[in-house]
Amino acid sequence: MSSASSTFAKNPGGVIKCKAAVASGAGEAMVIEEVEVNPPQPSEIRIKVVSTSLCRSDVTAWLSQAQPPLFPRIFGHEASGIVESVGEGVTEFAEGDHVLTLFIGECMNCKQCVSGKSNICQKLGLERKGVMHSDQKTRFFVKGKPIYHYCAVSSFSEYTVVNSGCAVKITKTAPLEKVCLLSCGTAAGLGAAWNVADVSKGSTVAIFGLGTVGLSVAQGAKIRGASRIIGVDTNPEKKDKAKAFGVTDFINPNDIDETVQQAIKRLTDGGVDYSFECIGDTEMINTALHSCCDGWGVTVTLGVPKTNPNVACHYGLFLTGRTLKGSLFGGWKPKSDIPTLIDMYLKEEIKIDDLITHNFPFKDINKAFDLMVAGKCLRCVIHMPNE
């Protein structure tokens, strides 16, 4: 599959009409509609999307009953594409550049960006209002009616507009239909192991949830030299796949006569050095903390909760030396760090291809959602038309 064969709509600098998957309400099937995509404003770029993968976060937001409802909306944030046009003041991108989209940006100038301690950009952090950072307006319309954005990206559209700080230029030798996973899930898991937990050689690890993020954590822990990596999942079909990513022990909570933390402590002489919650279940964070050892055990939470966003746990877990950390995009500074991960993939130092379980043409995007809801896929990559 050639990722560089895409052609551009013939209206540089003007409104582009193209197809997008529009969600009209929570849990309602996507409808492929003709949308108008406005030209990029100052500090923005317009991208022809080549490939975009479906992340669990897309599904969680799609099903959410949050108020006020942000519909109609175009989801999608793990994407690769080609720059179609650039807005005023943009100098780092040019037409034809290959890029990955970023759901959190990097302005490189704010307190957070220059601190060296964080990747939570004050200007281009998580966008929750469904509009562009710059002017709080949308770039999508259907018959004059505005359509909300998602995560500052909205990649389930043949064309999208993002802030130039929410994209990173990548080498044209990277296959766009593969590296789109580094826009979120794969990078998030690797970074949680390397940047946030800083997994050490010979250590023990427990991972709760063996989806794309969890398997990427396992891959990162294996590369760091962890001696034992325990994967926890209720889906028995994950067992063999997990081994390929470095998991040494598999626990299905439905198949044991003890609690998960008891099983993990028994296997590791008192608890693991690091545990990772990759499900989006705040009750599981408590289990992950209990699975860590006294003194220095570290729990990292990566999942986005579907319900019950509050974490409740006994203070004694921390009094005895455990640490709970949150991780957004694995701590990576996206524009600065993602090119390094691209290079590692091209050198076959990290795996991406094995995380892609399904490929769909854009017209079949609802099949990808069905598989994700049913728990029958890791990553579904959706391929946009090449014309």
From TrEMBL:
SUPFAM superfamilies to which the protein is assigned, alphabetical: GroES-like, NAD(P)-binding Rossmann-fold domains
The GO biological-process annotations, alphabetized, read as: formaldehyde catabolic process
Gene Ontology molecular function: any one: zinc ion binding
- PROSITE patterns per the UniProt record, alphabetical: ADH_ZINC (PS00059)
UniProt-listed Pfam families: ADH_N (PF08240), ADH_zinc_N (PF00107)
GO CC annotation, single = cytosol
Cofactor entry: Zn(2+)
- Enoyl reductase (ER) domain mapped to chain residues: 25-382
Q: Which UniProt keywords apply?
A: Metal-binding, NAD, Oxidoreductase, Zinc
Task: Outline the subunit composition.
Answer: Homodimer.
Q: Which family does it belong to?
A: Belongs to the zinc-containing alcohol dehydrogenase family. Class-III subfamily.
Q: What is this protein called?
A: Enoyl reductase (ER) domain-containing protein
* Native species: Lactuca sativa (Garden lettuce)
